[in-house]
Amino acid sequence: MQKIIFGFLLFFSAYSASAQSKELINIRAYCDKQMHQWLAEYTSFLGIPNIASDTIHIQKNAAFIQQMMKNRGISNVQLLAPKTIGIPPVIYGEVIHPGATKTIIFYAHYDGQPVDSTKWAKGLHPFKPSLLNSSLENQGTIISWPDQTAEINPEWRIYARSASDDKAGVMSILSAYESITKCGYQPSINLKFFFEGEEEAGSDHLYEVLEKYAPQLQSDLWIICDGPVHQSGKKMVSFGVRGDTHMELTVYGSKRPLHSGHYGNWAPNPAMLLSKLLSSMKDDNGNVLVKGFYDDVTPLSENEKKALKEIPSPDNQMKKELGFLAQENDQLTLAESILNPSLNINGLQSANVGKLSSNVIPTTATASLDLRLVLGNDFRRQQNKVVAHIKKQGYYVTDQDPTEAERKLYPKIAKVILSDGYNAQRTSMDLPIAQNVIAAVKSTTSDQIVLMPSVGGSLPLFVFEKYLHAKTITVPIANHDNNQHAENENIRLQNLWNGIETFAAIMMMK
Amino acid sequence: MQKIIFGFLLFFSAYSASAQSKELINIRAYCDKQMHQWLAEYTSFLGIPNIASDTIHIQKNAAFIQQMMKNRGISNVQLLAPKTIGIPPVIYGEVIHPGATKTIIFYAHYDGQPVDSTKWAKGLHPFKPSLLNSSLENQGTIISWPDQTAEINPEWRIYARSASDDKAGVMSILSAYESITKCGYQPSINLKFFFEGEEEAGSDHLYEVLEKYAPQLQSDLWIICDGPVHQSGKKMVSFGVRGDTHMELTVYGSKRPLHSGHYGNWAPNPAMLLSKLLSSMKDDNGNVLVKGFYDDVTPLSENEKKALKEIPSPDNQMKKELGFLAQENDQLTLAESILNPSLNINGLQSANVGKLSSNVIPTTATASLDLRLVLGNDFRRQQNKVVAHIKKQGYYVTDQDPTEAERKLYPKIAKVILSDGYNAQRTSMDLPIAQNVIAAVKSTTSDQIVLMPSVGGSLPLFVFEKYLHAKTITVPIANHDNNQHAENENIRLQNLWNGIETFAAIMMMK
Question: ipTM for the complex?
Fold first, then answer.
C-alpha cells in the first residue's frame, strides 16, 4: 500500500536550534535516520480500521501494537481486558528499573472516531493513508510516498482516520522509547505504556480496567497524549480539563397551542418566558448572574497565574477565522474564559420558525444548557445553583410535565431535567513532578512552551483519580488544524517528529 | 344518507322569553315548523366536499347554493367569477325594492379548511355528517337522525367539515330570508347575498371579484357571518378585526458550530443574544417596550369603551380550560388585550434540544414574530419600529445572511425578514347603521349582546374598504367550541337556529 524507501535526513536537528543536551542531540540524529522507516510503520498502522465496535479490526490493531512494543524491547506486553466481554482491550507494557524511584504511565488510545468515507475529499480514504504536500485548506495535493533518498518535507501531512487522534500518540510514545534505547541510554524512571481502545466510544469500561489492574497501574503520574497543541503551533502541556454536565429547561404556557390573534399578549408565551429566564442568567458582558456561580472555584496558584499570562493569544486570529468580531466577555481572553465555570446554551426550541411557523402561542419552550466546571466545582452543586436561580425568578420547578393541579397552583412552571456529569480535574503545576515534565519539554526547544492550567474541553480524567488516586498531565502533539473527529483527519509530519522528541525528553527526565 | 321526518317543535319560541315584536313571533313559529326540513337540506349541503382546490365539488356546492337561493325566490342568482381562471366563484343573488333606501350585503363562505379524515373521531367523517347528542368533549355519542315526529334537542350537534365554518353562514342567512317571506313580510332594505368559495385558501382573488363587479356590489354595509360567538355563549356583534404581519429575526455567532468546552463563554452564543434581544422587547408585565409601539392607536369612542366594559369576562373560565394561572399582562382582561397592538413569539429555534442536542455553541438563533395591528397602525410602520428597536440594541440589521465583510465590521448582526401584511379594519359603533344592526340583534333576546369593538383575530376585511369603500360588521353564529379549522368540526343546533333568527331580525331592520 505504501511505497517508502529509507533515507537519511536532518529535520529533527534542523528544527530546534537551541542549546541542547548531548543526549538529545544523539536522539535527534537517530530520529532523522529512522524517519523513513517510521513513516512506513505508521502508514501500515493507520491502514487498519479502528472503530471501537469493529472487533475484528480492533484485534488486528492490538496485535500490531503488541508487535511494535516487542520490537522495541518493551517487557511484559499484554492485553488488559475490561470485565465486560467484547470491549476493546488495553495494550500494556512496561520497562522497570530496580533502582528507579519514579513511575510514569504513558497513555494514548488506538481507536478512532466513526467515519463516513463518502465525506472525505476526492482521492482520500480514512483507512488508506495518503500523503499530501500541504493541508487541503492550503491547497495541498496528494503526492507519492518518498523513496529512500527523497527528502521528507516536515510540512507534508498524512491523511487518515486517527492520523492525529490518537494513533499519533501510540506511534510517538513507542518511537521515543526506541530512540532512547537505540542511542544506548536508559530511562531514569520506570515506564509503563497503556493504550486504550474505547476512548472514542466514551471510555465507558475504562474504570473496569483501572479497578481490576490497580496494583499493576500504580504510578507517580500519567502522561496523557491526546488532542492538539496550542493554536499558535507551540508545544503545550496542560494540567487539567473542565468537568461537564447538562440541564434541560422547559417552561409552559397554555395546554394547547393558541391562536396568536385571539389570545396573543393575554395568554402567557413560553418562548418569551424562556427568553427572559435565560437572559436573567447572564449580564450583557457574559458574566453568569446565578448566585454563587463562581464561588467554589479553587484559585490559581502563582505559577498557574504566571503561565496563564504567558499563553500566546490566538484570540484575534480565531475571531477572524470564525467570523465574529465581539467575544461574549470582552474583559477575558479565550485562555482566561476557559478557566471559569461556564453556562452555555446548546439549543433552543419552541414551536416552529421559517416556513413551518404559524400564528400560534407555543405551549412550551425548551433550552438545553451545558455547564462546564473548573477545579472546586461539584457538578450537582453547580446544577443546584441554577435551579435555585430559576426558583428565584418565580418558577415552580418540577422534573416532569406539570399536572393539572400544578397548573392551577403555580403562575410560572419550569421542568428541569438534570443530567449526570463529572467534575473537573487539575494537577497542580507546582508539584515537583509537574515541574520536571515542564523542564523536560522545555529542553527540546528554544521556543515558548504553552502551559495550560486547564483546557476548555472535558475528559473523564477524574476516573484516574477516582480509581487509582493518580495524577494526570496532558502532553498533546497533533497540529491544531487536524480535523479531529471529522472527515479529512490528518497529521503534519513535523508534529509527529516533535512528539517523538518530546516524549523521549520526558522519559529521560530526572 | 339522512333519515329525517318532519315534525313541529317550539325551540325557537321556547328559547327567548323576552317581549318580542309580532313579526319575530310569527317568524319563530315558521322556524319551528321548518326545522326538520332545514336539517335535511343542511346535511345534504354538508355532504358535498368543499376544499377550495377541489374544483368539481366546488361546482356542486355552487349549484346547490344557487338552487337554495332560487327555491327561496331570490332574484338575479348568478356566479361572479374572479378574473383568474379556476378560482371558486362567488354565488350572488339579490332582493331589490324600488323604495328601499339602504342596501346590506350578507357575506358567508362555502369552502372549508382542508381535512385529514383519519384524525376525526371514530364513526365521524368530514363529509358524511353525523348527529351527536352532545359535544365529544362532553361525552356525546352518535345518534340516529330524528324522524318527523321526534323532538329535536337544541343541544344536539352536527359533526362535519364547515358545519360551523362557514356553511352555517350560508344556511342561516338564506333560511332567515325564507322565514320572512313565508310569513308574508317584506324586508325593508335591499338585500344582496355574497357567498365566497376561496376564504379558507386565503381569499387571494376576492379583490378581483370586488373590482370587477364593483357597481353591482354597492351597499351601505356588509354583514359578515363567520367565526364563533363569544366564549360566554352570548350573541355577539363585532365591528373590526386586527391587522397582521410577521417578522423573522436571526442572530449570528461563529460561522461554524464550536465546541462549547473549548470556546464556550468566549465565542458569542446566538441563543443567548436572541434571548436578550427578545427580552428587551417586553417588560415582565407584557408591555411592549419597542419605542412608539402604542403611539398610532386610534382611541376607542365612548360607545366602544362602554361596550368593552360590558363584555362578560371569560378570563377565569378560559384560564382553567387552558391550564395556566398567570396571564401575560395582569392589568388587562382578554377583551382589553386584543384592542392593543401585539408582539408575539410564534417560534424559536437554535441548534437542537433534547436527544439531538450536543455540546455546541450554535451558529444562529431564529425567532418568528407576529405583530397584530389595531386601528391606526400601519403594518410597515409597526415593523419599522421593531427594526429600529433591534438597531438600538446594537445590531446591524440586514435582510440576508451576513457577508464575510459584514462579519468583520459589526459586533452584533441580525437578519430581519419582513413579511407582507395588512392593517386592521374597524367600523365605528356610532354609525346609525351600526346602531340599527345592534338594535336588531338585541330585539331577538332578553340576554345581553356582546359588542366587540374588534376581535383579536385577523381577516383581510380591508379589501372591502379598499375596493368598494364599504363598511363591514361581523355577526358570527357558531358555538365557541366548534373545532373550527381542526378535526371534529361541529355546530350546536341552537346556534344555527339563533343565527336564522338573528339574520331575519337584521333583514327586517328599519
Answer: 0.85
